[in-house]
Specification:
Number of strands: 3
CATH architecture of one domain: Orthogonal Bundle
Radius of gyration: 13 Å
Strand content: 15-25%
CATH superfamily of one domain: lambda repressor-like DNA-binding domains
Strand order of the largest sheet: 1-2-3
Distance between the termini: 29 Å
Shape: globular
Helix content: 40-55%
Structural class: alpha+beta
CATH class of one domain: Mainly Alpha
């Protein structure tokens, strides 16, 4: 397994079978959301369309100006294939 830092916030892993985010070291939920979106090379509009909510809501979540409702947190965790606990303060 090879570990490396991405944007000073994430630990990324890669081995013979798979690769991906191991964990995100970040202070805010919004930063975590932004990092996950950047990791997939997606725009806010693309994520909002794929997950099924308004792009202005995602923008507010990423700026930490609006708390993420649990149903949205569950959908985002499923979409990004991460544990929902990273979206809980």
């Amino acid at each position: 397994m090879v570990l490396s830092w991405i944007a000073f916030y994430c630990v990324y892993y890669k081995n013979d079978d798979s690769e991906g985010l191991l964990f995100i070291m970040s202070e805010t939920i919004g930063q975590k959301l932004r990092i996950l979106r950047y990791e997939k090379n997606l725009t806010q509009q693309q994520v909002a369309d794929m997950v099924g909510f308004a792009v202005n809501s995602l923008s507010r979540y990423e700026r930490d100006t609006k708390p993420i409702p649990m149903d949205i947190a569950l959908r985002l965790a499923d979409f990004y294939e991460v544990d929902v606990k990273i979206f809980i303060p």
